[in-house]
Design a protein that fits this description.
alpha/beta
Length: 196
C-alpha cells in the first residue's frame, strides 16, 4: 500500500521518535511504499492565516498554499499518525495540520451544507501510535479527543469504509523501560502486519 506517515514530535531523542522509527522501518519491511512526513523536520506551518480562513470555502483556490501536502494526502491509500498527547489533545502542530489541510474540496465536499460528503474515500486504512502522560481513566474522563479524532472523525472522512486501529500507551509519567520496550515491539508487530 501507499502509506502516508504523519509524525509530530519536536525531540529526536524522545520515545516517540523511537516509535516513529519503528513504524517506518516495519512498514517498509512489509513492502509498503512510505511517505514519511515529519511535520517538525519539514517546518510545517500550523497557523491558519486570516487569508486562508477567508478563502476556506473557495474551492479549489483554498488549496493553493498547501498543494504539496494535499498531493501527498491524495496519493495515500493509508495513513498512520504518530504523536504524543499534550493537554489531552493533539499537539498544536498536528492540530494545525488538520485545521489547514482537512478543508473543503480535500477532506469533504460542503457544496451542499445540509449534506456534507466525505472526500477521503481513497483512504482504506487509518492507524495511530499515541502516547499519553496520564493513565487511561483520566484520558477517558477528559473525553480522549485524540482517540475520537482518529477512530471517529478520520473514519467518517473516509466514508466509514476505512479500517481503523489505535495503539495507545497510557501513563508515560511512570513508564518503565520494560513496559516501553514491550509497547515498541507491539507497535512494530502491528506495522509489520499492516494491511487494508
Amino acid at each position: 500500500m501507499r502509506v502516508l506517515v504523519i509524525y509530530c514530535h519536536p525531540v529526536e531523542t524522545s520515545f516517540h521518535a523511537a516509535l516513529h522509527q519503528e513504524v517506518v522501518k516495519n512498514l517498509k519491511a512489509a513492502g509498503h511504499e512510505v511517505d514519511d512526513c515529519d511535520l517538525y523536520a519539514e517546518g510545517f506551518n500550523p497557523v491558519l492565516s486570516r487569508e486562508e480562513r477567508l478563502g476556506y470555502h473557495d474551492v479549489p483556490s483554498n488549496q493553493e498554499p498547501l498543494k504539496d501536502y494535499i498531493r501527498r494526502l491524495q496519493w495515500a491509500e493509508a495513513i498512520v499518525f504518530c504523536f504524543p498527547t499534550w493537554c489531552f489533545g493533539l499537539p498544536a502542530m498536528l492540530k494545525g495540520y488538520f485545521d489547514r489541510l482537512f478543508m473543503p474540496g480535500v477532506a469533504f465536499d460542503i457544496s451542499d451544507p445540509a449534506n456534507v460528503k466525505p472526500m477521503l474515500t481513497h483512504i482504506k486504512r487509518v492507524s495511530a501510535v499515541v502516547t499519553y502522560g496520564r493513565p487511561r481513566w483520566v484520558a477517558w474522563y477528559m473525553g480522549d479527543p485524540p482517540r475520537k479524532i482518529v477512530t471517529r472523525y478520520m473514519k467518517r472522512l473516509t466514508g466509514q469504509t476505512a479500517r481503523v486501529d489505535y495503539h495507545a500507551y497510557y501513563h508515560m509519567n511512570i513508564a518503565t523501560r520494560p513496559k516501553l520496550e514491550q509497547f515498541l515491539a507491539r507497535v512494530g508487530q502491528a506495522m509489520s502486519r499492516f494491511a487494508a
